[in-house]
């Protein structure tokens, strides 16, 4: 038997051209995340992850047109939300169900040509935003808002969520968040997606599986937990006793540390900057100040540095996005990476079949039920 690696830490399970993390630096298909965060539209990143190159102007325009065209859901899907769009159902649970449901309306859900797979991926990416925003609208007792032609993906998400066009700073912040979350090498949900389709299951099954993996607080659910923490701290003066009490009780402080980054998460600085800008614009500067105080104290007390989840929480909150939508937004972005990994798995597939080290009892004999 091979050596046991709990959590598969340090185990290389796939080859990829999608993204890399080398010496604490994240790249997408060879492009530094700093370069992309400062310059790229999310749609450009989608194309990059799927094709390992940036699109031409014509290719970008065609992708944007298709993302707009495919964003509208079948009317039965909108009606379907009415069955479970309540505060008792977590939006990630709803997303997991609805991604599976939209497969029923895709006539080519099982087709296998490369061209059909690409069109299916565009449909899925387009509809992810509509699923999250429509669920929230129905949950509020409002009519879903259809996408608006001419808006970029980030702007359309906010438009469909709120029914009004977002400000420039909101679009900038949300686009950066989508870019920064689009992929992250072989994380838990990307690995789950690859495992699911390694049996040659369909693309929708891979995305449903990935959504289920992302739902957990140790993965995508972290930023929602960050906002819950910030909601309990009302001023900078409360930060030190709050954090010290958490550390004393050995409670996990969400939004800090990362298994693959030893020198800090390279994505965090961009959302920290956007957090400052957007909290200033919306009159919620105290949230940024509290966040900085927590970050400084955690570095002083533990040496652990904030990750991308920490400041994304205040960015989303400042745009008046419900806290339990933070993880579904992560899924909207990360779908681009999941689909890229699914493409790779299909192209060079071997079914995932690791081994387990048995630690239970041995040499046991069956006894008739009367003798047990």
Automatic annotation (TrEMBL):
<dbReference type="InterPro" id="IPR019810">
    <property type="entry name" value="Citrate_synthase_AS"/>
</dbReference>
<comment type="pathway">
    <text>Carbohydrate metabolism; tricarboxylic acid cycle.</text>
</comment>
<protein>
    <recommendedName>
        <fullName>Citrate synthase</fullName>
    </recommendedName>
</protein>
<dbReference type="InterPro" id="IPR036969">
    <property type="entry name" value="Citrate_synthase_sf"/>
</dbReference>
<dbReference type="InterPro" id="IPR011278">
    <property type="entry name" value="2-MeCitrate/Citrate_synth_II"/>
</dbReference>
<dbReference type="InterPro" id="IPR016143">
    <property type="entry name" value="Citrate_synth-like_sm_a-sub"/>
</dbReference>
<keyword id="KW-0816">Tricarboxylic acid cycle</keyword>
<dbReference type="InterPro" id="IPR002020">
    <property type="entry name" value="Citrate_synthase"/>
</dbReference>
<comment type="similarity">
    <text>Belongs to the citrate synthase family.</text>
</comment>
<dbReference type="GO" id="GO:0036440">
    <property type="term" value="F:citrate synthase activity"/>
</dbReference>
<dbReference type="Pfam" id="PF00285">
    <property type="entry name" value="Citrate_synt"/>
</dbReference>
<keyword id="KW-0808">Transferase</keyword>
<dbReference type="InterPro" id="IPR024176">
    <property type="entry name" value="Citrate_synthase_bac-typ"/>
</dbReference>
<dbReference type="InterPro" id="IPR016142">
    <property type="entry name" value="Citrate_synth-like_lrg_a-sub"/>
</dbReference>
<keyword id="KW-0012">Acyltransferase</keyword>
